[in-house]
Amino acid sequence: MQIDGTAASETLSGTDGDDVINGYAGFDIINGRGGNDVINGGDDGDSLEGGAGDDIIDGGDGNDFVNDFTSGSDILRGGSGADTINVSHFGATGLTETIVINAGTGDDRVDFNSSAKGTATIDLGDGADRLSFGTVSNASLTITTGAGRDTIVLQPSTSIGTAPVITDFQAGDAGDIFELSEYVARTTINWDGSNPFGPAGFLRLVQSGTSVLLEADRDGPTGSMSGFVPLARFENSLVEAFTAANFGGYAPSGAAVVGRTITGTDNFDTLNGTVGADIISGFAGRDQIDGRNGNDIIDGGADSDAIQGGFGNDVIDGGDGDDTISDTGGSDTIRGGAGNDSIFVSHSSNGTAETIRIEGGAGDDVVSYYVFSPGTGSIDLGEGADRLILGNGQAVRATLGSGRDRVEFASFAPQNAIPTIADFTAGADGDVVDISTNFAFGFQGWDGSNPFGSSGYLRLLQAGKDTLFQIDRDGAVGRNSGFQTIGRLENVDAFSLTAENFGGYAPKVVNGADLATAVVTTPQVVTEGIDQTFTIGLTFKSVTSLNTFVSMSFVTDASSATNGSDVSVGTFSGNFSITQSPAGDYRVNLGSVAILDDGFVEGDETIAIRITATGQLFDTGTDSTVVQISLRSDDRTGTDGADVLNGTAGNDILRGFAGADTLTGFSGRDLLEGGQGNDVLSGGSGSDVFLFAGAILGNDRIKDFGVDDLLVTTLKLADRDSDGVIGFGSDRDLDFTGGGQAVITSDAGTRVTSLEYDGSFVADNVTYYVYSRVGSSVGMPDADALI
């Protein structure tokens, strides 16, 4: 069907069939709906959407908005003008599509995300264009930037299958820009804000033929969970041609980022920092300041300023005036200063611990705190009638200061840390817990009566000297949730709190004796290297009725052991609603914990596991506890004398140190290190590792070096012929640096006179070189598989 507009501005809608829609002049709003449509916006700026089907959309002249939110193989043309093209095919997983975007002339903006298979081709055309892409999980994406200095933005939520190809990226100081600072800040683990191309080791450029690959490692060189993966391929490029200007200030050479000193005036200023550590002073006037990345020092000065800290460890001082301060990442110190300030802190978690300090200062301030990174936060509201909104997952302690202040506990996830108020004032003229947020998030089935009453949505619990504020989102009649603590009032007698402290609702107080006591059953000490698995138990003592949500999770920042290499801690969550008579204990088996064998044990380590049972009591006085389990190395360690160390039928680690030692592993995957002295080593059955660390001085004997065994050294053995085969001396002994030797006999009783080099790996900043029997198929294993 053909649908024609006029020279006026109008709204045109297609049918579910194949339409041809012409907008002509005027600001037209056109939606093709279903079918394979052809849409021409015509003159002037238009808003165009194809709908379902394989569509062809041409914006024509003017600053057009071209939207493509449904699946289909589409051709989108911006035409002339500063156009905005948005493709979002998130629901297209499993479909195969061909998408072609030609932005045309003008300074265009293109946003692209698709989970479909197939191909996508984007030509930005002439102008200073900006392309933002994230999800390209199944399709191949080819980008042509065209004329003009263009910017390509890598979204934090990027999911890439095959690295996008950029055909004509202009490298150099005046060239195109690949903006990835927000991607690095939100997706990497333990990034400290330094150049991600530098020692931090999160990014690198690699020459691949005539192309350059941009690669990322999300957990850097110290992490073991990921390695380098390509983010983009720059065709017809050389690594040495790229500069800091191409990556938003980050030099691909790894050089440190140099910040700037930026000074405003007494007028209205717009001041933007760099990715380095900047010093920004706004002085007087209503300034707009953005520190961007880097560890910045920002002083807004007099008057009411708008300050954005950005990523990095910032120090922000609003100064006098009613300032608006926001921050999105890093260990920050934020001071509002005098005036009625608004401070908004929102940090997602990338695994990096952050320490945050907020001082509201004088005035009626509003502080919103939504921080989900590990670490700690402290808030001092200062003088005035302040408002504090706590939606945090991080442990935070707040001091309200003088004045009648309002607190909102807006975090309901059971696994979140419980915020603490240090100086809440009870009584008629005291502080207020604002429960309107709790209403807004939904008391299921609430009839408008006192939520502390028989409806059973809220209650106070006296826990030692403190009062716990608890919520049950579906109330007394619901069985899907139970009471959970969402706030702690420190050194407050629950019975001193009145209706005036809760917006007119008289509170209900319960004692700890009314609740089930929760007891965790877990071993205090376990040994690494024996491949054992155990289940953590949780017992509720002497209960007749119980309604609780139970969860278990690994606590990274309280553990020295690493989840995934030292241990494997499963997660657990579930609701439990129990009624029984007579009263008795009720046990819940939580997730399992597997003790892994990482090959090179770092000594005794600690596993920390958080267990929450909403509305119940642990010995902490709250409904959450962290249990500590000691993880011990299973080393059998000798002395400086002559030791005899025997393993077991399991996987053992035997270390002799000095002296003439005899080490026998027996069966299992054993690691044997004789140390200095004349040692005799026997691995027994199984794939064993014989470790020689440092300069060996003794004359050692390996009695049973099998085809599945490995010899590992920290000093690389000499390869005289550079053929990967290490030949022994004329006496058929293996010679070590330092003068030591080893006589190696196979498990069949024959002399071994050469070894094959398999490769190397790094553990705890030490390089290990791996060797096996010539012709062995054991090959180079992962570091974690060496024992």
Annotation keywords:
787 residues; mainly beta; 5 domains; 13-stranded mixed sheet; twelve-stranded mixed sheet; 42% strand; globular
Q: Helices, strands, pairings?
A:
Blueprint: E1 2-4, E2 11-13, E3 20-22, E4 29-31, E5 38-40, E6 47-49, E7 56-58, E8 65-68, E9 75-77, E10 84-89, E11 96-102, E12 109-114, E13 117-123, E14 130-136, E15 139-144, E16 151-160, E17 165-166, E18 177-179, H1 181-187, E19 203-208, E20 211-216, E21 229-234, E22 261-263, E23 270-272, E24 279-281, E25 288-290, E26 297-299, E27 306-308, E28 315-317, E29 324-327, E30 333-335, E31 342-347, E32 354-359, E33 366-371, E34 375-380, E35 387-390, E36 395-399, E37 406-409, E38 420-421, E39 432-433, H2 436-440, E40 458-463, E41 466-471, E42 484-489, E43 509-511, E44 517-521, E45 525-527, E46 533-554, E47 567-569, E48 572-595, E49 605-613, E50 624-632, E51 635-637, E52 644-646, E53 653-655, E54 662-664, E55 671-673, E56 680-682, E57 689-692, E58 699-705, E59 710-713, E60 725-727, E61 734-735, E62 741-746, E63 754-763, E64 766-773
Parallel strand pairs: 1-3, 2-4, 3-5, 4-6, 5-7, 6-8, 7-9, 8-10, 9-11, 10-12, 11-13, 12-14, 13-15, 14-16, 15-17, 16-18, 17-21, 22-24, 23-25, 24-26, 25-27, 26-28, 27-29, 28-30, 29-31, 30-32, 31-33, 32-34, 33-35, 34-36, 35-37, 36-38, 37-39, 38-42, 40-43, 45-50, 51-53, 52-54, 53-55, 54-56, ...
Antiparallel strand pairs: 19-20, 20-21, 40-41, 41-42, 44-46, 46-48, 46-49, 47-48, 49-50, 59-64, 60-63, 61-62, 63-64
Structural description of this entry:
2% of the residues lie in helices and 42% in strands. The strands form seven sheets. Strands 22-24-26-28-30-32-34-36-38-42-41-40-43 form a 13-stranded mixed β-sheet, with no helix packed on it. Strands 1-3-5-7-9-11-13-15-17-21-20-19 form a twelve-stranded mixed β-sheet, with no helix packed on it. The protein has 787 residues and is an all-beta fold. The protein folds into five domains: 2-247, no CATH class; 261-423, no CATH class; 449-514, no CATH class; 517-632, Immunoglobulin-like (Sandwich); 635-785, no CATH class. The longest helix is centred in the first third of the chain and has 7 residues, at 181-187. The termini are far apart. A hairpin with a 2-residue loop joins strand 63 (754-763) and strand 64.
